[in-house]
């Protein structure tokens, strides 16, 4: 059955696209639209044509699931041309979102109207693509090169009112959409059909495209698609429409066939799969979460509070003293004041969010909250005491979550009478910015509690991944292995700056040593004090520890791996001498370490520990590990995450290298787990 329904009402043909859940433009939709336009042209009852959608939204773009398959005619650009060539006025009537190919279909129509809540965008760049159905040629002609470049390279949707101001749509309508559609259709059916795409758009300035390329090569470092977007928009302003369309098609096919697009499409689906848990059926209930308490108003606690306040959720911040509470509330207020100062937030929005924030030093104030998130010191005895207090204070349906980044959630759950309501919600700092949320499932955690956490992710705009209980869960466990190899490479001969350079060239936003200096070398130092020797390679962290002990804790003390006369930091001769001393103490003759070895050993360490995490069932899917590492640790999204990279690079190659490391360094850390064998 076609995904497009044809009907006629008051001289207007309605082509209704109905392809749940997001009206993705599958082959059936493309064929149905093409046939519908042909039928409406022949239909003597029809003086105007409306394209609209059933369900919650206009079309959300091409069906991404079809990309891996051989493309089927009619191709989307041809459908858009067919619509545009129609000799009766075609009106796209938009509600919900019109994204990618959906907006391109609307651009092929002669008019576009939208309801107030509509959002319009060209997010193809987020999939490593460019708009491939005329979007890069029509948009600049409609709204100008500058606005079009921003819409296409940012991938961000704009609201209907802004779309109207830009000229992307012709009207924002209120009330019943179908009635408004009929009214608009009747108002244009005797008018001459507009042809806005005949003229080339003006170029904003001689250096516009080069300036934009330079800006994006920094802001979207390593990504190819933004550059392709600029090339396509430049073609719109230098070539005829048809030649521009040919150029767009070439660039689109290049992007679609690229490993970067495959990686980013992998991430798109991976971030949706990660919220599906095999033994949590869709019909599982979830507790309503309408209010939250956060225990501990330090950096993490304040960040978590902001994450909830931003979504309009009332928050109680609980501290041990009035002084600590005041400092915590001040952290939240300062953050919002900064956002207002930077123009990211209005005063009114700041006030409305702060109005939802309350402070307390009494557990008795938490009796009615639906969720408590403990964000206190990373010490098991402190956490157990807090949970024992919570157990007495909260209602029976309250979810008790710990934000611990590596401690045993099962042990914490033993402190309460209702362990099935206990779960780990591991936020990443800054908690109001970082998208990743590791949901740590204890052995007693009920599926209702787990499902509540899964639903919460969507509610607060986080990317959730479920982890089992182990030291460091998924991300931090892998990160520790990555850091181990960094430390070993340094005592073997590499310098911190060589390592950072090699890994930023690979695509990491910051090198591991610069990251450690930014976060503070003392964080890892305190964690390591709680580890037993079999949990980490002590010699790999000798330099880290000695730097902390001499108060070189990173940026906050003006020196760490680097010297910080300015924010950039510069290589430190003293650190290089310390490395030579440590190598000598260990009887290691320093050697030249290649860039390739730095990348292979550190990234292979992620893959090796990732595959162990899979074999232990800590993570359910390899794509879940990719979601963690791209959203929590800056792994380049255009490589699709460490496990996608391993698959793309070739598991056999990586397996052979790991076997080689095991021979050279022993198999304490280097073991080939099942995932790498298949
Ligand atoms: N194709 C196929 N499936 C899609 C899809 C798409 N475009 N968009 C969403 N889905 C699935 C998704 O996998 C999930 O499946 C379900 O729909 C609900 O999605 C030629 C080439 C529209 C804002 O990039 O941004 O057009 O998990 O959980 O939070 O130029 O989906 O239920 O099985 O995200 O309400 C450009 C991508 C494509 C838009 C809704 N379009 N989608 O968010 O639901 S390329 C996009 C979204 C293109 C042309 C080019 C969001 C959403 P399942 P969801 P949501």
TrEMBL record:
Primary localization: other
Extent of the signal sequence: none
UniProt KW keywords: Fatty acid metabolism, Isomerase, Lipid degradation, Lipid metabolism, Lyase, Multifunctional enzyme, NAD, Oxidoreductase, Peroxisome
BP terms from Gene Ontology: fatty acid metabolic process; lipid catabolic process
Subcellular location(s) of the protein: Peroxisome
CDD domains for the chain: crotonase-like
Domain 3-hydroxyacyl-CoA dehydrogenase C-terminal: 472-564
Domain 3-hydroxyacyl-CoA dehydrogenase NAD binding: 291-467
Catalytic activity of the protein: a (3S)-3-hydroxyacyl-CoA + NAD(+) = a 3-oxoacyl-CoA + NADH + H(+)
This protein's pathway: Lipid metabolism; fatty acid beta-oxidation
GO MF, any single term: enoyl-CoA hydratase activity
Family statement drawn from the similarity comment of this UniProt entry: Belongs to the enoyl-CoA hydratase/isomerase family.
This protein's name: 3-hydroxyacyl-CoA dehydrogenase NAD-binding domain-containing protein
Source species: Temperatibacter marinus
């Amino acid at each position: 059955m076609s995904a497009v329904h044809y009907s006629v009402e008051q001289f207007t043909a309605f082509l209704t696209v109905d392809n749940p859940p997001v009206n993705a433009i599958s082959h059936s939709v493309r064929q149905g639209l093409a046939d519908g336009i042909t039928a409406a042209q022949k239909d003597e009852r029809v003086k105007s044509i409306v394209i609209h959608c059933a369900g919650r939204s206009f079309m959300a773009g091409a069906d991404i699931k079809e990309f891996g398959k051989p493309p089927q005619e009619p191709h989307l650009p041809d459908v858009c041309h067919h619509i545009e060539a129609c000799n009766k006025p075609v009106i796209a009537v938009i509600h919900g979102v019109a994204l990618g190919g959906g907006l391109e279909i609307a651009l092929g129509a002669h008019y576009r109207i939208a309801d107030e809540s509509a959002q319009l965008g060209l997010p193809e760049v987020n999939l490593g693509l460019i708009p491939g159905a005329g979007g890069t040629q029509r948009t600049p002609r409609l709204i100008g090169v500058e606005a079009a470049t921003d819409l296409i390279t940012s991938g961000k949707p704009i609201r209907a009112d802004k779309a109207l101001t830009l000229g992307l749509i012709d009207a924002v309508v209120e009330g019943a959409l179908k009635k408004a559609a009929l009214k608009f259709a009747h108002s244009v059916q005797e008018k001459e059909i507009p042809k806005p795409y005949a003229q080339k758009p003006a170029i904003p300035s001689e250096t516009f495209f080069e300036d934009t390329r330079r800006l994006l090569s920094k802001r979207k470092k390593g990504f190819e698609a933004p550059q392709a977007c600029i090339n396509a928009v430049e073609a719109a302003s230098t070539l005829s429409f048809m030649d521009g369309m040919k150029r767009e098609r070439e660039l689109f096919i290049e992007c679609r066939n690229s490993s970067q697009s495959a990686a980013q499409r992998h991430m798109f689906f991976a971030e949706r799969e990660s919220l599906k848990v095999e033994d949590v059926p869709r019909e599982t209930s979830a507790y309503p979460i309408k209010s939250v308490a956060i225990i501990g108003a330090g950096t993490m606690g304040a960040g978590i509070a902001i994450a909830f306040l931003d979504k309009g959720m009332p928050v109680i911040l609980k501290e041990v003293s009035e002084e600590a509470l005041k400092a915590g509330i001040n952290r939240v207020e300062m953050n919002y004041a900064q956002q207002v100062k930077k123009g990211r937030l209005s005063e009114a929005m700041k006030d409305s969010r702060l109005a939802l924030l309350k402070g307390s030093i009494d557990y008795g104030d938490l009796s009615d909250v639906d969720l408590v998130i403990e964000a206190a010191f990373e010490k098991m005895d402190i956490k157990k005491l807090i949970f024992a207090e919570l157990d007495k204070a909260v209602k029976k349906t309250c979810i008790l979550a710990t934000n611990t980044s590596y401690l045993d959630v099962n042990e914490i759950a033993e402190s309460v009478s209702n362990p099935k309501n206990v779960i780990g919600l591991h936020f990443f700092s800054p908690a109001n910015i970082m998208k990743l949320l590791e949901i740590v499932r204890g052995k007693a955690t009920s599926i209702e509690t787990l499902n509540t956490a899964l639903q919460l992710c969507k509610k607060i705009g986080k990317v959730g991944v479920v982890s089992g209980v182990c030291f460091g869960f998924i991300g931090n466990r892998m990160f520790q292995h990555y850091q181990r190899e960094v430390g070993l490479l340094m005592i073997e001969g590499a310098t911190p700056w060589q390592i950072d350079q090699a890994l930023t060239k690979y695509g990491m936003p910051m090198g591991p040593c610069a990251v450690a200096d930014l976060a503070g070398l003392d964080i890892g130092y305190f964690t390591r004090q709680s580890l037993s020797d079999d949990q980490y390679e002590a010699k790999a962290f000798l330099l880290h520890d000695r730097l902390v002990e001499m108060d070189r804790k990173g940026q906050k003390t003006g020196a760490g791996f680097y010297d910080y006369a300015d924010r950039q930091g510069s290589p430190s001769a003293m650190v290089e001498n310390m490395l030579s001393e440590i190598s000598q103490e260990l009887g290691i003759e320093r050697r030249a370490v290649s860039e390739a070895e730095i990348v292979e050993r550190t990234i292979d360490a992620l893959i090796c520990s990732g595959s162990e995490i899979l074999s232990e069932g800590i993570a359910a899917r390899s794509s879940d590990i990719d979601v963690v590492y791209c959203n929590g640790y800056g792994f380049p999204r255009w490589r699709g995450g460490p496990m996608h990279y391993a698959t793309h690079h070739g598991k056999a190659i990586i397996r052979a290298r790991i076997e080689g490391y095991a021979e050279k360094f022993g198999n304490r850390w280097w073991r080939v787990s099942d995932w790498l064998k298949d």
